[in-house]
Structures are given as structure tokens and as C-alpha cells.
């Protein structure tokens, strides 16, 4: 599930970024729908977990916990 969240967030960010390229930088002004979508999709990278936390969760699931130093 975490991997799907990361992939969906990254894909959405790329789609919105390309839409802004087509529409122009003015679409980032306050009140513009593309600007709102861009801010929302950027926030998706931090909520409920960041990409780094997601990567750590996936790594721990696949490789097991990191042994503690004695």
C-alpha cells in the first residue's frame, strides 16, 4: 500500500507539472485550479508519510529490520 501511495503521488505530480508547462507559469497564482492541484500534489509527498518514510517501510518489509549495534 505504501508503494502504491508513493507511485500515485509521483505520477500525479508529473501530470500536474506537465499541465503547468502547457498552461504557463501564470497557472501557479493564487486562486488558479492548476496552482491548487500542484500544491495539493506536493503535500501528498509528506502525508501521511514522506517518500523517505515510505522507502524505509518498504526496505524493512523486504530486508528485515536493521540490526542494532552492540
TrEMBL record:
The keyword Nucleotide-binding does not apply. Keywords: Oxidoreductase. Gene3D superfamilies: Butyryl-CoA Dehydrogenase, subunit A, domain 3. Residues 4-48 form the Acyl-CoA dehydrogenase C-terminal domain. GO terms for molecular function: oxidoreductase activity, acting on the CH-CH group of donors. This is Acyl-CoA dehydrogenase. It holds the Pfam family Acyl-CoA_dh_2. InterPro entries: Acyl-CoA_DH_C (IPR013107), AcylCo_DH-like_C (IPR036250).
Amino acid at each position: 500500500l505504501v508503494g502504491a501511495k508513493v507511485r500515485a503521488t509521483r505520477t500525479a505530480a508529473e501530470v500536474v507539472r506537465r499541465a503547468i508547462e502547457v498552461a504557463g507559469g501564470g497557472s501557479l497564482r493564487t486562486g488558479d485550479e492548476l496552482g491548487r492541484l500542484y500544491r495539493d500534489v506536493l503535500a501528498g509527498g509528506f502525508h501521511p508519510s514522506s517518500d523517505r518514510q515510505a522507502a524505509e517501510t518498504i526496505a524493512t518489509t523486504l530486508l528485515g529490520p536493521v540490526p542494532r549495534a552492540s
